[in-house]
Amino acid sequence: MNNYHETQKINLFATLALTGTVIFWSIGPIFITYLTDYLDSWTQNFLRYLVACCFWLPFLFISIGQKKFDRRIWRKAILPATANLLMQSFYAGAFYYIGPAFMVLLAKTNIIWIAGFSLIFFPEERPLAKSKRFWLGLLLSATGVAGVMYFKEDFTTAKTMTGVFLSFAMAVMWAVYTLSVRIAFRDIDSSHGFSVISIYTVAGLFICTLLFGDVGDCVRLGLTQWVCIVISGILCIALGHVLYYAAMRRIGATIPALVILLQPFIVMAISHLRFGKSLNIQQIICGVVLLAGTALSIWAQEHLKNT
Asked: Which residues constitute the domain of residue 240?
């Protein structure tokens, strides 16, 4: 991965890539929530990922034809794709039980898992365990998460508890996915890597749909629903992931991780306008504490790298 000083000239591209990522990943939960009335989570996941896969396939074939494709990707993508399959399954499933703003906030606990796994698997990250900023950030994040859940009116209902469980499971798998991508695709083109991941993921989602979903729902979809599937597949999955990879390769993981913290606020605003769903004031305050703690933990990691 290029260092910061080497990428000063292309920071504009990274900025645009991050802007696109935040926008696309913020509208994704809105599309998923809308489609919950028409499709089960397995079928919805499969269709959206199929669109994303088809979007990148022509570029993949061109690269293979021009012999620019690194054949190691087929092997290296297995672990990230497996983590992605599980993560996406938990992610989409959670929206069938809880609102998008609540879900996205809980999903930000992935930073805690990313930090924990990094301490275990990356020796260069272990000095972080001595950072007071880092532990304070994790404490604030944990406090914020507890508050967001505690102040939810129907938190004790089975439906909400299921959504919370799926959100936390998604956060763990997002950490596994992020770190496995970091390891596997350190020196590999991001669009090529995600193309192969999407192929593997689509294959897995297709099997899951046949086993647990209802493919017959597809024939009952109207034009509006199909447009939502195509748009969300291209923007939120195909472009969103690749833009995020591209930004990380140019300016590192810290700044992108901080910028993505804007996502819950954007989702909350759109969700309130579109569905009339929002968080109460206590949850919003706790959400700010959660995101502040997350930002502090990320800052501590960056401080460690610069010392």
From this structure: 5-305
Q: At 180, which amino acid appears?
A: S
Cα torsion through 17, 21, 185, 55, rounded to 10: -100
> Which tens digits make up the pLDDT trace of 129-148?
778 888 888 888 888 888 88
pTM: 0.82
Q: What does R_g of the chain's alpha carbons equal in angstroms?
A: 19
**Residue length, the chain?**
307
* DSSP 8-state class, residue 216: G
The amino acid sitting at 304 is L
**Structural domain total, the chain:** 1
H helices of the chain, in order, are: 11-35, 41-65, 72-76, 78-94, 100-107, 110-121, 132-150, 158-184, 190-212, 223-232, 240-251, 254-259, 263-275, 281-305
